[in-house]
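[recover] target loaded
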């Protein structure tokens, strides 16, 4: 998308212990350089590693974020983490509505929207994930699902600065399967039109990431698709070599 800085984001999911901090450190070093002026890089480790990761990367352009937040600021919500707590650890981004949250924890569009609002209130960038299941794609319902999820999960007043959309076909996550470039182009063009219709100029500039089995070998092709403004990477973001190779697809 013209005049948009792409974002390459990594989602570690429930992976990573203190041993993995050397990967974060290597990524922090690896993204130093001229490319960092043109492409943003973000890693979302498990929240146990959040604070130490931001400290490790304070002299690096590598951004650090979290994978989910609660919709409230604080209170009696055992096991949950608020957007304020993420910001307090110097996290800058939070993923909301990942398909694994939607499936494992029943996060609905309405809840995802409230979480994104909580992220904005804490001055975090919300990465709002949407995407169709295999059955929905086979049933020809992909665009309809994306329309409903975008309308339901993205808060009113979202801007290009505080919101990123991640299109992740559920059937492509962790499976090694990816849609064709033509299918990615169709989905992203549709989302762009929806965002423009709702948010005007902000929607024209809002980043739309592709996620689902992005690897060093397919990153260049996927990132070259029109209206693809970066990637959300799961498995291939765990190792610095793979993550940096995907980031460098923009070289
Ligand atoms: C993800 O979890 O956001 C993801 C895209 O996973 P993977 O890259 O492993 O398919």
């Amino acid at each position: 998308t013209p005049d948009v800085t792409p974002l390459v984001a990594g989602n570690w999911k429930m992976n990573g212990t203190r041993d993995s901090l050397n990967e974060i450190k290597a990524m922090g070093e690896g993204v130093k350089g001229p490319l960092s002026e043109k492409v943003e890089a973000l890693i979302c480790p498990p929240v146990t590693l959040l604070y130490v990761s931001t400290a490790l990367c304070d002299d690096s352009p590598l951004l650090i974020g979290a994978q989910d937040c609660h919709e409230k600021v604080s209170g009696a919500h055992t096991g949950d983490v608020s957007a304020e707590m993420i910001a307090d650890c110097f996290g800058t981004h939070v993923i909301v509505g990942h398909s694994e949250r939607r499936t494992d924890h029943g996060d609905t569009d309405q809840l995802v929207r409230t979480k994104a609002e909580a992220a904005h209130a804490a001055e975090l960038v919300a990465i709002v994930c949407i995407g169709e299941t295999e059955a929905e794609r086979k049933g020809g319902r992909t665009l309809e699902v994306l329309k409903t999820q975008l309308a339901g999960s993205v808060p009113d007043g979202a801007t290009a600065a505080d919101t990123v959309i991640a299109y992740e076909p559920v059937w492509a996550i962790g499976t090694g399967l990816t849609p064709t470039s033509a299918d990615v182009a169709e989905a992203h063009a549709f989302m762009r039109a929806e965002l423009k219709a709702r948010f005007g100029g902000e929607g024209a500039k809002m980043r739309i990431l592709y996620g689902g089995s992005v690897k060093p070998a397919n990153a260049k092709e996927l990132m070259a698709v029109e209206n693809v403004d970066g990637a959300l990477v799961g498995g291939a973001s765990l190792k610095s070599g793979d993550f940096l190779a995907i980031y460098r697809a923009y070289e």
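[recover] notes: The two ends are 16 Å apart (CA to CA).
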